[in-house]
Amino acid sequence: MRPTFDLTGDSSWTTAATIRSLENEWQAAIKGHDVAALDRLLADDFSATSSTGREGNKATVLAEMRNDRSVYDSARAQGMKIRSLGPDAAVVTGTATESGTTSDGQRFKTSRRFTDKWERRNGRWQCVASKATRLPGQ
User: What 3-state class would DSSP assign to 2?
Assistant: First the structure.
């Protein structure tokens, strides 16, 4: 007889937990200006569209982080919904919110909806694409 909570065969649950954890690592990297962590999370062929409509790639995102002089009080992802696209791909939607102080002393709080596509490559999950949409009033 199998235990009630035997999740060994439920790869979608494991995938969802992994992707949630990776999205939280991404937010922690933003807050801590951890370029190395973000470099590990993004695939070399990563592509993105920012909430301002600007397109970029991994090098663009890493350069932005290196140049960011803001001090973050918080950076978090919430309301995440993960859809498994098979054993090695998933899409996550959610809301990312960051708050803090810019380098010139201005307080900020930004929130945006995001859609990220993750793929497992060589046994490691990496984000291959991201699109953000600014929320009204932000």
Answer: coil
